[in-house]
Amino acid sequence: MQLFNLGIDVAKAKLDCALRTPDGKYKNKVVENNPKGFADLRQWLIKHDGMQARVCMEATGTYWEGVAEYLAGEGMAVSVVNPLQIKSYGQSLLIRSKTDRVDAQLIAHFCHERQPALWKAPSAAEQALRAMVLRMNALQTMRTQESNRLDVSREAVKQNIESHIIWLDTEIKALAKKIQNHIDDDPDLRNKRELLDSIPGLGERTIPILLSYFSDLERFSNPKKAAAFAGLDPRQHESGSSVKGKTRMSKLGHTFLRKAMYMPSMVTLHRTEWGKIFKERLSSAGKPPMVIIGAMMRKLVHVTIGVLKSGKMFDPALHAA
Fold this sequence. Notes:
Strand content: 5-15%
Order of helices and strands: EEEHEHEHHHHHHHEEEEHHHH
Structural class: alpha/beta
C-alpha cells in the first residue's frame, strides 16, 4: 500500500491537490490545469517526497486527461474514478462541507482507504480518435441548435444563421473524412472497424465512437463492465417483502457514450432480423418499449465487446436462437 496518496479535484482552469502523508495529515496546493501547472505540481511533490504517491482524481469531463497522462508519464500510479463514487463515499463519512479543498482531501482519503484500480493511458491513436469523435458531437449539436433557431429567426439574422449552418456542414464533412482516414491509417483500428461493421445496426457514425472507448480490450474484463461504464447496467431496488421497485437503467456512467447507443438500438430493433427477433422475445415476455430499447443498447455493447475480444465477425445465428 502506498504511504502517500494524492487527491486531485479537477476543474477546467485549476487543480486542487491534497497530499495525504503517512501520518494522515494533508498538504494542499492549487495549480493551473495546464502543462505549466503540471510542472509546478511535480516540483511541489518532489519537495514533499510525494513522487511515489498514489494519485486519484474524478473523471470530470475531459479536464482530467492532461494531468492524468502527465503523472502517469512520470511513473506515478494513477486512478480515475466515477465522481459518484466520491460523492457517495463523502456521504458515508457524513462530510457536510463542500469546497474544492475539502473535495481534494476526500479524494485522497478515498484513495488511501479503497486503493481503486489503476488507470491506463489510452494509445495515442485512441486519444486522437476520441478527441475527433467528441468534436464531431459538438459540431453536430451546434448544427441542431442553429437549425432550430433558423425556424424562428427574424430576417435580420437569418442569413447569418444560414451561413453558419453551411460552415458547420463543411466542417462536419471534413472531420468525418479525417476520422475515416485516421482509422484507415491505423492497422489495429482498421481491423476492429471491420469487425464492428459486421454487426447489423451499427453505422459509420457509431463505430468510431465505440472504437474510441472500447478499442483497448484490457480495460474491460467482460461485457458487463463495458455496459456499466456507459451506465447501461440494470439497477434493482428491492427491500424486504414490501419494496419491489422497477428495475431501471442505472445511468451511472458515461453520458455521451450512452446517448450514442440510442439510435443504433432503434435501427437494430426495427430494421435488422436479429433485432426484430430480440424485440419479439422481450415483447412476448411483457417488457414495455423503453425497457426493450434499453436492453438493446446494453446488448449492442455486449456484442461489441464480444466481437472485438473474439476477433470474429458477428454471427447472427448466435443471437437468433
